[in-house]
Amino acid sequence: MARRPPIGNRIRALREQHGNMSQAALAEAIGVTRQTVIAMEQGRYSPSLESAFRISRVFGVGVEDVFSWTEPPDS
Questions:
Q1: Which residue among 3, 27, 31, 63 is the one 20 to 30 A from 74 at the CA level?
Q2: CA 41 – CA 29 distance, rounded (Å)
Q3: Which residues pair with residue 69 across a beta bridge?
Q4: Coil, strand, or helix at residue 8?
Q5: Which of 2, 28, 23 is nearest to 12 (CA)?
Q6: Cα 7 to the chain's mean position, in Å?
Q7: CATH of 7-61, one of 1.10.260.40, 3.30.200.20, 3.40.50.300, 3.40.50.2300
Q8: pLDDT, tens digit (0-9, with 9 covering 90-100), for 16-32
């Protein structure tokens, strides 16, 4: 089973706070597919640095207000 990336996010909460923005609208605004937004929200995909900045700009917040880092447990 693949391990989830250690990057968490608040994308869904931010979309809801910004007029219930749809996944499709966010995807269009940042230049990715809706499936990519879904994968990011579910923690299955970590965005590129460029996409992370684009997301933060769409919501008018800093990158660290959208994304967080969780240290993976030692294996």
A1: 63
A2: 16
A3: 7
A4: strand
A5: 23
A6: 9
A7: 1.10.260.40
A8: 999 999 999 999 999 99
